[in-house]
Amino acid sequence: MESLGLLFGSLARVKLLRLFLFNHTDAYSFDDVIMRAKLSSNDARAELLRLVRAGLLKRSGTVKASTYRVNQRYPYLDALSAFIRSTTVVAPAALVRNLKKAGALRLVVLSGVFTGVSESSIDLLVVGDKLDERALARAAQVIEAELGREIRYASFGTEDFAYRRGIYDRLLRDVFDYPHQSLLDRIGL
CB 40: neighbour CB atoms within 10 A? Predict the structure, then answer.
């Protein structure tokens, strides 16, 4: 992502491009933009202004209650969207490193948005011992900021996962019956 930051002028701009292009029908308040993209208010304000001036974003509302959305008539919207989608990847090592802060990981599986399968119920499956749900939620927010879109994730303790796997749980079938990628497997699947 650093090379895109150099190409587009800043990492903040790349995060905003991802946020708006992956969610091109949604409108976001300034506070939502800061929260979702994990940017400082100064960086977000400057980059939003640049994107509005460029014509990619539209601003509506009052000065204090502005919302931003993608300008659907922007002439290069499809090309820019295709480029951002094709270059958006989260490094597996960085993803696992973020998730390790939540506890002792035993299994990390990517599906859904990470593999291009929209039918999957979840995008990320985490199995571990003594998982801290708040730390896991923070790690998911960091991943979401990198991706520019929300991810659906599920976490289980090792025993709960083994039980669910034994009864052919629908959620687990949705992950393992479709294309998926195991980043970490200490269970031995």
Answer: 10
Q: Which residues contact 151 (CB under 8 A, 6 or more apart)?
A: 112, 113, 123, 124, 140, 143, 144
**Could you report the per-residue pLDDT of 105-136, keeping only the tens digit for each?**
999 999 887 877 766 788 899 999 989 999 99
Which parts of 9-132 fold into alpha helices (H)? 11-22, 30-37, 41-54, 77-87, 92-99
Query: Which helix (DSSP H) or strand (DSSP E) does residue 39 occupy?
Result: none
Query: What are the pLDDT digits (tens) for 125-166?
Result: 999 998 999 999 999 988 888 777 788 999 999 999 999 999
Which of helix, strand or coil describes residue 64? coil
Residue 97: Cβ within 10 Å count: 11
Neighbours of 114 (CB within 10 A): 22
Q: Return the bridge partners of 127, or none.
A: 107, 156
Is 22 in contact with 69 (CB distance < 8 Å)?
no
